[in-house]
Amino acid sequence: MENVRLRKATTKDKAIAVGFDYRLDKEEHIKLNRQEKITKAISNDECFLILADDREVGFVIFDYRFFDQGWIELIVIDEKYRGKGIGGKTFNLICEQCKSDKVFTSTNSSNTQMQRALEKAEFSFAGELKGLDEGDPELFYYKKVKRI
């Protein structure tokens, strides 16, 4: 997958984004009411489809609600496209378009695949928060955005 780009999701793309999330973890999708979250992100221009070689392979929700810093709230890449560098390229694209000095994100301590991807994309560990998911602390990461 050489050519990775982001395209702002529209209401016509809602089923695509919802489908990626649903297929990834049906139970979590329903429990966390992700369809509503995705719908809201699309209407707020905060949801982007991830395209690799012009094929939709996932989506990312990005906003500035985390202390006015860039915040990757959710990134979902279809399982068959993982491990191909798409996540890293997506992180770079987000950082390039970011209007703040830093981009933050978080993941559960059990999500070692995401942790490896963040470290590979040169995100730094910021800290740990206990109490969100019992027995599975939330790990926070950030990356300074280079300004030209």
Automatic annotation (TrEMBL):
<feature type="domain" description="N-acetyltransferase">
    <location>
        <begin position="4"/>
        <end position="146"/>
    </location>
</feature>
<keyword id="KW-0808">Transferase</keyword>
<dbReference type="Pfam" id="PF00583">
    <property type="entry name" value="Acetyltransf_1"/>
</dbReference>
<protein>
    <submittedName>
        <fullName>Acetyltransferase (GNAT) domain-containing protein</fullName>
    </submittedName>
</protein>
<dbReference type="GO" id="GO:0016747">
    <property type="term" value="F:acyltransferase activity, transferring groups other than amino-acyl groups"/>
</dbReference>
<dbReference type="InterPro" id="IPR000182">
    <property type="entry name" value="GNAT_dom"/>
</dbReference>
<dbReference type="InterPro" id="IPR016181">
    <property type="entry name" value="Acyl_CoA_acyltransferase"/>
</dbReference>
